[in-house]
Amino acid sequence: MEDMKDFHDTHDNLSGWLSAKDRMMTALGPILSDSRMVQSQVQQVQVLREEFRTQQPQLSHLSEVGESILARLDPDTPDAQRLSARLTSILHRWADLLGRLDERADSLGAAVDTSREFDAGLNRLRDALQGISDQLDDLPLDRDPEEQLRKIEVSSYYFHHDVAHP
After folding, report:
1. Per-residue DSSP letters for 49-90?
2. Is the N or C terminus of the chain more exposed, i.e. has fewer CB atoms within 10 Å?
3. Radius of gyration over alpha carbons of the chain, in Å?
4. Contact at 8 Å (CB) between 134 and 58?
5. What is the pTM of this model?
6. How far apart are CA 71 and CA 84, in angstroms?
7. Do 84 and 70 contact (CB within 8 A), yes or no?
8. Are 30 and 38 in contact (CB under 8 A)?
C-alpha cells in the first residue's frame, strides 16, 4: 500500500513538473537571428537539460516503484492497466520533451553559425557604407561634376565588390 502512495505522489509531482516544462518549451518561441539572442536561447536549453538531469532520479524511482507494483498485480486487472497506463504516459511525455529539447539544441547549433555569418556580413556592409560615406565627404564641392560622378561610380564598384565578394 505504501508503494502505491509513493507511486501516485511521485507520478503527480513528475506530471506537474513535465506540464511546466512543456509550457516552458512552448514559450521559448522561434529561433532568432540575432547572435546574442541565439546565445541566450542556447543557455535556456542548457538550463532545461540540467533540470531534466536533476529530475532523472525521480523518473527512475517512479519506474522502479511502478514496475515493483505491477509485478505483484495480475496484469489483466483494471488497477494494473491504469497503473501501467499512468507509468507509460509519464515515460512517453518525458521522452517527447527530451526529444524536443534535443531538436531545439540541434537547430540552435545551426542558428549560431548562421547568425555569426550574418553578423560578419552586416559588419562588412557597415564598413563598406562608412567607407563610401567618408569618400563622399572628402569630395570637394568646387570640382568638376563629371569627376565627382566618376569617383562615386568607383566607390560604388568597390562597394559592390566588397559586399558581394567578401
Report:
1. HHHHHHHHHHHHHHHHHHHHHHHHS-TTSHHHHHHHHHHHHH
2. N
3. 30
4. no
5. 0.71
6. 11
7. yes
8. no
Domains and their CATH numbers in the chain:
2-164 (1.20.58.60)
- At 1, which amino acid appears? M
Provide the grid cell at 45: 536549453
Say whether 30 sits in a helix, a strand or coil: coil
Which grid coordinates belong to 72?
505483484
Please report, as a single letter, which amino acid is at residue 101: L
Name the residue type at position 111. A
- The 10s digit of each residue's pLDDT in 79-130 is 999 999 999 999 999 999 999 999 999 989 888 878 778 888 888 888 888 8
